[in-house]
Task: structure prediction
Amino acid sequence: MAGMEGKELARPDQTFLPEPGAIIFDANWTLDDFARAWRTLDSRAAWIKGDMARYVADRWGTAGGVGVLAEKLGENVNTLRSYRRVAEAWPEDARRLEVPWSVHQVLASQEDRAELLKKRPKMTVEKARALVQSRNCQPSLEEARATAIAAAKVAGVEPVTAEPDPVAVAGRLAAAEPVAVAAEPEPVATCPHHVCPVCGHEHPGP
Result:
């Protein structure tokens, strides 16, 4: 084991972190070990940035604090807001340092995010995005009921008032008579008018 120990620096929330550069490397590390350590450092840095953005916003406000800090850093203010949003969504006791920060970011919008991560401790960013996308594409119970009732009315079937059963609704719609759709009337041809070069009056064309 080679490296050096660094003194600790205080953060605004009175917790501590090792001084930059005080990373201990193992002489037997492989490239996979370095890649894992690199991702871990990225995640910890993101958490620190989020806590800093949250502290700045609480002390100086969003515009006067986070906005000004973004200008000083040359960063997009939305980037700092994203760090702050993730930090607020995940209290320190709910964060899992062995899981990438980016996974926490994707799951930040889910109300049961802590439970999701607890059940899937090895969740990747790709799996987290697929999970959130599947939930966003899945209609709510009210939306499903409204869609089933509207489809039943169009097909001439008695509307479904109870909780919709997709299989039952599909069967009833399949057995219903097809709804005739009135075709749009074809445009009626009109004869163009011609202006007589002699008298200047309009006369119907042939």
Q: What stands out?
A: Confidence is low (pLDDT under 50) at residues 1-18, 184-195. The first strand starts at residue 8 and ends at 10. The beta strands are 8-10, 16-18, 193-195, 202-204. Helices lie at 31-60, 62-73, 77-89, 101-107, 113-119, 125-137, 141-154, 166-175.
